[in-house]
Amino acid sequence: MTPIDPARIGFRPVEPAHYPLLLRWLNEPHILEWWGDPDEELGFIKDMVEGKDTTRPFIFTLDAEPVGYIQYWFLGHHQNDEWTRDNPWLLELPSDAIGVDLSVGDAGKLSAGIGSAALSAVAAILRNLGHETIVIDPDPANVRAVRAYSKAGFRTVPELEGRTGNDVLIMQYDPKANEIS
Known about the structure:
Helices cover 29% and strands 21% of the residues. The protein has 181 residues and is α+β, with helices and mostly antiparallel strands. It has a seven-stranded mixed β-sheet.
């Protein structure tokens, strides 16, 4: 499969008009399997849009058509007792690190390279903004996601393997991962 040209990927900040689409996606079986309750997740996104949470939510597009959801969050904002009690690994990463989460909305668009392309594109944007450490934390059982993130240049953080619980695999963006030598 030929990789998707990153120029075909776009990002739109989530706004209230996107809520019905997001709720539909959050109810898709392939998203329900890995994310929480759809109404609760949409509530978190609404908090982001309303500025009650520092996480930045976006709809990502392919050829200007909405195909998925992506957000980035600031690890330093989560390096507190509330978060680190259940996720002590947060303290193992720099406070200026950025975390990324994403899902392709429709199941028919899975395994087509869209998620990898969106993740590569957002990583490039974040690097251009000066963010050096970019991580993603899939469930290791989500093999499709781990494979997509690897294709996008994310690599397992070896010193955190086996230290994050059974449902979290910490992967960090390596800008050299996809270079041809």
